[in-house]
């Protein structure tokens, strides 16, 4: 027997607010475990506007929702669980990104882009990625510690990689990183959020216009060339796609680089194992991705028709957040999930990159970047250590993508 929203447990009681803060960077919010155990599909109120949404917390259920064709990613649908202040007039003008598209538009654009991120294509990029990492580590060693690993390594590496891939001048990185940070901040006003989006789009509009006339050897130019014959996107679509690639291509990986280094420094026994046996690194990266699940609530959906998830009926038009972090700490899939274990055999079952047709298109690239950074640090700076009290580090509780603002290190 299934329950509807009206018959759900604790109906009529005040709804918990979402997002929920992590009390420890290496753990999920403490509320998630209780929800998985007692109410794995339950209601919450969005802090940004008080609107109700469904939270899905078990691994099996999150996979079900993300793989279900009866749910939509369309952020313009009335029930979509927005986590930012977006006035109706602004929402009406927004052009959906790939993440916010449904088939067939999503299928057509993703097919055009997927060739840029295949395992083979990323393997070809690996030498240049390693060169970028070595250059940044050279600079760290020349400067001497302490340094902020975020500004010295975590941000520059993925920013340089995605700039070269897209054909964006890296000398502009400081400005687009500022716009990107604003777009990820839950607590900005609608005007501040809108200004960041408009400024970045204006910058990319000029860049795309230039590449339409003078193409180069880069992703945007290749997309434009293919689009001339297949016509799956107009000029504004290309600008929006470029924004997603630029922001997503550095924001997530940069945060994972810093958090992963922090985790290893806080687990010296496992760090020593990786230094002794670098072959363990790919598995360790999957475990780090699982533990942090930095884009926990990036999987917003709307039910297009009534669907059953667990023993709950989610009605057509209701919003859903399929929580990756909760799924990645599901005890039925990951025994002792709060423990970082670089030998965890089931780690690759994590959903940190999402699942289904909207699974992160850049997952292969992110893994190679993480392997290059962690492997180089383990090899070239074996004495790396924190240069600050861990309790004084500031974490991005206010952001859509979790991370640490600064990470002082020395050696």
UniProtKB/TrEMBL annotation:
One of its GO terms (molecular function) is iron ion binding. Pfam families: p450. Residues 1-14 have a biased composition (Low complexity). The keyword Membrane does not apply. CDD domains: CYP105-like. Residues 1-22 are annotated as: Disordered. Keywords: Heme, Iron, Metal-binding, Monooxygenase, Oxidoreductase. PANTHER family: CYTOCHROME P450 YJIB-RELATED, P450, PUTATIVE (EUROFUNG)-RELATED. Belongs to the cytochrome P450 family. This is Cytochrome P450. It comes from Streptomyces roseochromogenus subsp. oscitans DS 12.976. The lineage of its organism: Bacteria, Bacillati, Actinomycetota, Actinomycetes, Kitasatosporales.
